[in-house]
Amino acid sequence: MISLAQRDIAHSLGKFLTTSMGIGMLLGVVLIMIGVYRGLVDDANILLKDTHANLWIVQQDTLGPFAENSRLHEDIKYQIKAFEGVKDVSALTFQNLQLYRNNQPIRVFAMGYDIGSFYTPHHLVEGRPILANHFEMIVDKKTGFKLHDEILIGRDMFNVVGITKDAVSSSGDLMVYFSLPDAQKLQFLSSNEQIRNDRARGTKATDTTTINAIIATVEEGADLKAIGQEIERWKHVKVFTQEEQSSLLTKNLIERSAKQIGMFTVILLLVASVIISLIIYTMTMGKLKEIAILKLIGASNGVIIKMIVQQSVLLGILSFIAGNLFSHSLMDLFPKRTILMSADAFSLLEIVIIVSILGSLFGVRSALKIDPASAIGG
Fold first, then answer.
1. 36 plus 178 within the same structural domain
2. Do residues 315 and 356 touch, judged by C-beta distance below 8 A?
3. Is the CB of residue 195 less than 8 Å from the CB of residue 127?
4. DSSP state of 23
5. Can you say how many angstroms the Cα of residue 118 is from the centroid of all Cα atoms in its chain?
6. What Gene Ontology cellular-component terms does the record carry (predicted)?
7. 25 and 138 housed in the same domain
8. How many domains is the chain built from?
9. What are phi and psi of 363, to 5 degrees?
């Protein structure tokens, strides 16, 4: 039996492919938006995964250094390490910095850590870890800095000793790493004028030995909850497991963005379904005479319905292929990481097929109303 889709491809190839590409661009945007969400989730957890920590110790009555401001005294790390079941600890600081390369500003998220602890920065692709407590740093490859570059930060010149790849903060900023003493110094750095003003006011110097969080690993087989409760009881802090911290980070920093992306995705899918419906309806109305002839020679309504649905599904599949190619060609142009997953693509394909079938119903309804006698009259 003659297929309407085959007739369109044979007689209107350019129009059919152009239409598929147009809808495909819309579906490509849907895939990119899903990829942006996947990138947000992955970026938010990169830093957590890198720590390989079992416990996060933060300021009492706070949700941790990412969701809320957290301050602790540095020397508490020695007391935490003394708890039974705790294997190792590392004190951490976090702050936003503005670096300059060729007079161009680069926003980064700086992390300070104990260089002698279990923690090491995100996978090094060049260079080495930080070995000295002062004037060494590690940067991400996308900052554009190279090994042995010297960067003026505050009043000191730092030497780039290591390069990481795809190291980002929970907000997507590129990561840089310092030793804990250097990071603390930068965090509380004051200008000369401010220092003079503070002295004139009799203001005490800021304590630069504070930190934002402590991460800890525990002995194999140890009870995380029991250790965390014991630390909270005696040290008056808040303790989260790695899983709890990840959940808080995702919920507090990504949830609103996820809802917004989800709304846009739903709207785009609705727009795509309306466009497919209108196109199939228009194509069907342009073939009223052919459909009337088919009815006149004895074609059943089932055959006509099948032809229109086939045309709609073929349009949807070609549009999906075009959208997939479109999204993969643009994903690297976005400022934040976009992760396109096969599972998301196959889910979208299923939705597209369903939408195509539903979108063909308007054309089916019009086709079934055609009077076979109209094939003779016109």
1. no
2. yes
3. no
4. H
5. 28
6. plasma membrane
7. no
8. 2
9. -65, -40
Q: How many Å from the N-terminal Cα to the C-terminal Cα in the chain?
A: 23
Q: Amino acid identity, residue 27?
A: L
Q: How far is CA 55 from its chain centroid? A: 24
Which of 317, 311, 318 has its CA nearest to residue 286?
A: 311
Confidence of residue 249 (pLDDT cuts 50, 70, 90): confident
Mean pLDDT of all residues in 258-279: 83
Does 16 share its domain with 69?
no
Binned at pLDDT 50, 70 and 90, residue 213 comes out as very high
Residue ending a domain, among 235, 268, 290, is 235
Alpha-carbon span 65 to 68, nearest angstrom: 6
- pLDDT number for residue 368: 79
Question: End of a domain among 187, 202, 235?
Answer: 235
What is the tens place of the pLDDT at every residue in 332-353? 888 778 889 999 999 999 988 9
* 167 and 174 Cβ atoms separated by less than 8 Å: yes
Q: Are residues 98 and 212 in the same domain?
A: yes
pTM beyond 0.85: no
For residue 334, give the amino acid letter: F
95: left (phi over 0), alpha (psi -120 to 50) or beta: beta
Q: Is 127 left (phi over 0), alpha (psi -120 to 50) or beta?
A: left
pLDDT band at 72 (very low <50, low <70, confident <90, very high): very high
Residue 298 lies in a domain: yes
Rounded distance between C-alpha atoms, residue 271 and residue 35, angstroms: 19
Instruction: Write down the pLDDT at residue 1.
Output: 41
Q: What distance in Å separates the CA atoms of residue 29 and residue 230, rounded to the nearest whole number?
A: 50
d(CA 83, CA 218): 10
Q: Which residue range is the domain that position 145 belongs to?
A: 61-235
Give the pLDDT band (50/70/90) at residue 82.
Answer: very high
Residue 111's φ and ψ, nearest 5 degrees, are: -120, 130
Q: Are residues 336 and 205 in the same domain?
A: no
| Amino acid (one-letter) located at 185 | K
**Residues 153, 231 within the same domain:** yes
Is 241 contained in some domain?
no
Is the same domain home to 339 and 373? yes
**Residue 278 and residue 346 in one domain:** yes
